[in-house]
Amino acid sequence: MHAATAVRMAGRPTVVTAVGWAVALLAVGCVLYAALRIAQFNPTDYAAWQADWRLAAECIGRDAYPCPGMSKFPLSYLVVAWIAATFDGSDRVAFTSVNLLFLTLPLLCLIPLHGVRRLWLTGWPFVLALALSPLPVFYVASGALEIQSGILSGIYIGAFAMALATPGLRVHGWLAVILVVSGFTFPLYKDTIGAFAGLAIVVLLWRQRAHLVAVWKQDGGRRALIRTAALAALPVMFAQIAGAAYSAFKYGVPLPVAYMEEAQHTAPGLAKSAEFLFGSLFSPNGGLLIFWGLPGLVALWCWRWSGWKLDRAAVMAGIAVLAISCLAFARWWAPFGWDGWGNRLLVPAALGLVVAIMISLRPVEQGAAVPVMHRHRASMVASLPLLVCSAYYVAIPYLSPVGAAMPATLWPGPHCARLQQAIPDEALANGLAFWKSGVYYNCARERMLHVPAPQYSRH
Predict the structure, then answer these.
(1) Residue 359 to residue 157: CA distance in whole angstroms
(2) What are the CA-CA distances from residue 151 to residues 78, 148, 247, 295, 337 (Å)?
(3) What is the C-alpha separation between 25 and 118, in angstroms, rounded?
(4) Bond into 412 cis (ω within 30)
(5) What are the pLDDT digits (tens) for 73-108?
(6) Which residues contact 435 (CB under 8 A, 6 or more apart)?
(7) Helices (H), 283-374
(8) How far is 203 from 194, CA to CA, in rounded Å?
(9) pTM for the whole thing?
């Protein structure tokens, strides 16, 4: 695209943005209308941690430590259990309200970080991407907290990338507040997410070492560097301490004992982990590419088309967290999260990547060529098969009877039918070792190879 064309396009952002918001809100309206008819409350693991708040209150009242009977889930689940217990309404309404509130947080963060105009200019691709994702049907009215985890980790990564781009690393005001709050809250959702983000940040800082050394040599640079490092690292460290204290409250030791024992007895071998990794990425039954292809490409194309460029630091850190998550969860016995639509365990990292990109977007310089669609014909054409397959996957629940889509993907064939039969007796008799048996692995493979379809097509 020539510079003159870019200037003309920059002169009409209001028209482009108004049309974008109209399309995004129309998509949201259509999705909400359909979801209200077909979406059921998807409890996932809610039954396991629903009573945590009550049990914790009873243990505190009896001065009983450690507290027996509590679930393995981290501290954030205790807080959400309290919200659900005090909410005057159904679980579906409570979780839907909380998850929708979290989905608006990245948009609200744009206002103090960049101003209302930035929300107007860059918020609509995010809204459109969410509407075109599998999240509204299965993860909004849900006891799964992956949306909340992904939103907070994405805000943290985006804020950290903005901090690195701040002149002289002088981080103040709302950026410091958002960095601290998100840094303390996102590690509370999973015991490993803080470590994943920490490794990603180390990789990012290594790539930025020349810039950091230059800041260190400036007047006042050392103080600014230490202050920024403290703002980014200390909240995460305090969150880890809070998580360890919660584990000590439950188990008597500051370690996630239940998760560690589960991993010790169920971790797959390297060959099986390689298979799990491949399935996590490429499975037609909700692997990373199929699940996120449509919303991810729509968001990226819309941002680029409307004249925004990605912050390399945010993209690098977000991709690093996603890659580490893929590798780590391939070593878990249930790489998709067992009970969910598609790869539930990768929702936080993938959603966090999209959020981090939006938080840290930069406008294309005035007069520079805007990298809009026709400059990327080759990549767009190459992405069309993925786009079509992902759109088909997103559409399946809307084309299926209420409550039929997810069970069909969880129990797709004879191997999983055999697993269903074995769970009441064999799983109970063999304990955690059952989840390393051929009965389970055959079903796991069957799930990953399954090509889902609308259920009406089978009648």
Answers:
(1) 9
(2) 18, 5, 24, 15, 19
(3) 17
(4) no
(5) 999 999 999 999 988 778 889 999 999 999 999 999
(6) 265, 266, 333, 334, 427
(7) 288-305, 312-329, 347-359
(8) 14
(9) 0.93
